[in-house]
């Protein structure tokens, strides 16, 4: 939604969509913290080097 709004030149709408996304991310983080669950990346794995 953010990209579509920007492509249309509607910066205000893009800002609103970005704000909603960020609030969702903050909410998800609060839930993970409350349940002591670590964040897991969707596409990458942490590489441990010895």
Q: Give me the oligomer status.
A: single chain
Structural class: mainly alpha
Number of strands: 0
On the 0-100 scale, what is the average pLDDT?
95
Helix content range of the residues, please? 55-70%
State Rg: 16 Å
* Proportion of residues in β-strands: under 5%
Shape: elongated
* Secondary-structure element pattern, one letter each: HH
Residue runs with pLDDT of under 50 for 5 or more positions: none
Q: Counting H and I runs of at least 4 residues, what is the number of helices? A: 2
End-to-end separation in angstroms reads 42 Å
Q: Can you summarize the main beta sheet?
A: none
Short description:
With 50 residues, the protein is mainly α. The chain is 60% helix and 0% strand. InterPro entries: OSBP_sf, Oxysterol-bd.
Give the topology:
Blueprint: H1 2-7, H2 11-34
Features:
50 residues, mainly alpha
Structure description:
By secondary structure, the chain is mostly helical. The protein has a domain at 2-34. The chain has 2 helices and no strands. The protein has helices spanning 2-7, 11-34. The longest helix has 24 residues, at 11-34. The chain is elongated, with a radius of gyration of 16 Å. The model has no long low-confidence stretch (mean pLDDT 95). Residues 21-50 are annotated as: Disordered. It holds the Pfam family Oxysterol_BP. Residues 21-32 have a biased composition (Basic and acidic residues).
């Amino acid at each position: 939604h953010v990209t579509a709004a920007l492509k249309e030149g509607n910066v205000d709408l893009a800002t609103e969509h970005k704000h909603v996304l960020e609030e969702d991310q903050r909410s998800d983080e609060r839930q993970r913290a409350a349940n002591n669950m670590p964040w897991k990346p969707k596409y990458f794995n942490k590489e441990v080097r010895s």
